[in-house]
User: Fold this.
Amino acid sequence: MSSIAITADTLNDTIDQNDIVLLDFWAEWCGPCRAFGPVFEKAAEANSDIVFGKIDTEVERELAAGFRITSIPTLMVFRGGIIVFSQPGALNAAQLDQVIAGARALDMDEVRAAVAAQEEDPAQA
Assistant:
C-alpha cells in the first residue's frame, strides 16, 4: 500500500483507527523532503499493516502549526494513538526501518503507564 494524503479532516480518524501511523510532514519546495519521499513510499509498500500518511505543510498549515513543525521533513510515529517518535530530518531506508521496528517492538502497556504517570506528575517529563 502506498502512502495517503492526510488532512485536518482525516487526521484524528487515521490515528484513532490504526495501530501504527507514520506521518511525513513535507512540502513540494523542500529538497530533503523530495529526497525522503521515495524512501517513505518504499517503506509504505513494504509495510502494508502500517498507515503511512503525508501532510503537505503548505496546504495543511494549521496541522503543521498544531504539531509545532519548524523543520521539514519531520517524521512522527503514532502507536495506539500516542506519539512515540518525532524527529525532523530526512532518514535513509535503514534508519526508517529501525524506527518502524522500534515502533513495532514497543510494549504499549508500559507506554500507556508512563503517559498516565506523566499526566499525574508533569515533573516526571
The chain has one domain: 4-124. The domain at 4-124 is CATH 3.40.30.10 (Glutaredoxin).
